[in-house]
Amino acid sequence: MPTRGGPDLPYDVVAGVTPCPPGWLVASAKLHGMTFAPEDPAVYETFAEVLSVKPAYSVIALNVPVGYPHEVHSGGRTCDRMARRLLGRRGTAIQSPPTRDVLANGHIPVDDHLAAVSLSLLPRIREVALEMAPYRQRSVFEVHPELSFYQLNSDKPMRWSKKFQAGQEERRALLVKRIQGVDRILDAQIEGVEPGHLTDAAAILWTARRIAARAATRIPEEPEWDDEGLRMELVR
Q: How confident is the model at residue 50 (pLDDT cuts 50, 70, 90)?
């Protein structure tokens, strides 16, 4: 299991982290053996603050791209294309990250299809890019909620899109069934945070647990690296 900074504790703390309008939503849980105890979610203004929490999270499952291509490729990175194929009808949720050039100057070419990432998310991705270095990938892993739900749902894609009420209800029911105490996350009332943010954070928290237990799967099994030495992969 990854090491953590701060005092020695009889448990580890793992986290699912996803962007939200106020900043970064963090759903965390104490992990000790088979005991997995979700905590109250919190919001941090910057990604740097998430990384600076003490004691440090032993695993951060991050719902933002980590590893950025030098050039635009149809369908994005290998991990993006493979994840879409795995998810089938839910695969459209997988967005390709911008290139490093886009991150540096903020200009998205018209033929880049917005790099499949909206302008509103670009500042969040840039935050991560500024903080990430290869050594941080010992504890920070790129994940995606739909891959987490796929695994939670016995390796089957969810029936409904999360954009619909039926999709939100479907995802909540699955989380409640699989994670004891997850209501503490799902029922949280945080200004600017929608129920969909909370379900996403809870789902990727489950993946953080799998990573800590060394039970997670990498997509692809043999990752690619970007020009800065970051692995370009998705973990589920």
A: very high
Q: What is the pLDDT of residues 139-169, one digit of tens each?
A: 999 999 999 999 999 999 999 999 999 999 9
C-alpha triplet 173, 163, 14: angle, nearest 5°: 55
User: HSE (CB half, 13 Å, CA atoms) of 2?
Assistant: 23
Q: pTM value?
A: 0.91
Q: How far is CA 38 from CA 12, 108, 132, 174, 229, in A?
A: 12, 39, 26, 16, 33
**Whose structure tokens read 């892993």?**
141
Cα separation, 71 vs 74, whole angstroms: 10
Tokens of 199: 């379900």
Cα 9-186-202 angle, rounded to 5 deg:
55
